[in-house]
Write a structure and sequence with these properties.
Elements (H helix, E strand, L loop, with lengths): L1 H20 L6 E7 L1 H6 L18 E8 L24 H7 L4 H7 L9 H16 L8 H13 L11 E4 H12 L4 E6 L6 E11 L10 E2 L7 E2 L8 E4 L1
Parallel strand pairs: 4-7
Antiparallel strand pairs: 1-2, 1-5, 3-8, 4-5, 5-6
């Protein structure tokens, strides 16, 4: 009888853990790029003025985010509430040691815009993105592959995604221009310039299929959003600036 009770407890525990592990599983990835001048002029981020040479003239990485089938972010690892992998993900010092060889490319392509040339600030940004989005990605024990996936995607894209800095276009024209370049439907995010209140293109988010085992994220797909813009843009005819 005691053995039977222990077995029942085991089954209940297994069911509970299984339910936690299957909580909003990965369906696809969202690769988020931000336009530095929009991020820094939106009133929520204090950046160096001017931005360092080379950083203000192309999109930089915000993050690589695993999404579920409802286009919601997959929850990060939590041993109690979301043990999405059999082993706990590596800690901060181990993650940073494992991606050390990527630092030059990460500094250029994935900087913390608040202090883009400061290694400590950048490490904090990378760790934040890893903790929130990498720990329950397809690379929970391979932070190098998680960050390398994002870098390889970024390096294969045109720096400005076919757009011209200093121009104003309708949101629809921006959407169509990016779609033509990447051959997939993006998700756009706008903000407002804190000084002029004009609409700005803040982020471009591209969607990618979940990779096969031992492969990097690489196959682009349409983003599922029914309306392709986030933030204050409300119409395809909204006039949006790329500062």
């Amino acid at each position: 009888m005691e053995n039977m009770n222990l077995f029942k407890v085991f089954l209940v525990s297994l069911t509970f853990v299984s339910a936690l592990c299957s909580k909003n599983p990965i369906d696809f990835y969202k690769f988020s790029l931000q336009w530095p001048r929009s991020s820094c002029s939106g009133g929520t981020m204090k950046c160096p003025n001017p931005l360092p040479v080379g950083i203000g003239t192309s999109f930089t990485i915000h993050g690589l985010w695993p999404q579920d089938a409802n286009d919601e972010p997959v929850d990060p690892y939590d041993r109690s509430t979301h043990p999405c992998s059999a082993q706990s993900p590596p800690g901060r010092s181990q993650v940073l040691a494992l991606i050390k060889s990527l630092y030059p490319s990460l500094t250029t392509n994935w900087p913390d815009l608040k202090n883009p040339l400061n290694t400590i600030a950048n490490e904090g940004f990378w760790w934040k993105e890893w903790s929130k989005h990498g720990t329950c990605s397809d690379f929970p024990s391979k932070p190098f592959d998680y960050f390398d996936s994002a870098l390889q995607i970024k390096l294969q894209l045109p720096a400005s995604l076919g757009l011209s800095s200093g121009t104003t276009q309708s949101l629809l024209d921006i959407f169509n221009a990016i779609s033509s370049v990447v051959k997939a439907k993006p998700e756009l995010a706008c903000n407002r310039n804190a000084s002029t209140n004009k609409l700005q293109l803040w982020e471009v988010r591209l969607c990618y299929e979940r990779p096969a085992p031992n492969e990097l994220v690489k196959t682009i797909r349409d983003c599922p959003s029914s309306w392709p813009a986030k933030g204050p843009c409300t119409s395809p005819q909204d006039q949006v600036t790329l500062p």
